[in-house]
Task: inverse folding
């Protein structure tokens, strides 16, 4: 098996009623779940909380998804992601992959989130009328 150049990234699926919160990613020209790169020294949970604060200007918490009762001697259990995707990133002179840990999350204060041209609640009926990657569409269709 050949090694791949990998960036570790996180994404948050924030679902409220019949919609999922999405952000417009101008560089990729597509609607995506909020998220981004994990920085040195961050856990996956720390990274997704920071990225959501930066991108949607709101505080989130992960939907708990733990095995439970498997920790001892200072070992801590982290939330398991909803899914993990290996995504090819085809940038000029920088072909690499994102190992994307995608978590389910909740907004702590929904009134803090203001929809605008780059932050939007997307309903199932909107999916076919927006620019979106096929894998993101498939995830949304499963959850809505």
Result:
């Amino acid at each position: 098996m050949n090694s791949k150049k990998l960036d570790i990234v996180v994404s948050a699926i924030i679902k409220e009623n019949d919609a999922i919160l999405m952000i417009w990613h101008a560089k990729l020209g597509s609607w995506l779940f909020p998220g981004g790169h994990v920085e040195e020294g961050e856990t996956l949970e720390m990274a997704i909380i920071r990225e959501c604060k930066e991108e949607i200007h709101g505080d989130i918490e992960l939907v708990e998804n733990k095995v439970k009762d498997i920790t001892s001697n200072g070992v801590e259990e982290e939330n398991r992601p909803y899914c993990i995707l290996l995504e090819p990133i085809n940038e000029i002179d920088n072909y690499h992959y994102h190992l994307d840990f995608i978590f389910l999350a909740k907004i702590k204060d929904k009134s803090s989130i203001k929809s605008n041209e780059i932050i939007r609640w997307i309903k199932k009926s909107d999916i076919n009328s927006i620019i979106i990657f096929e894998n993101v569409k498939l995830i949304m269709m499963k959850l809505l």
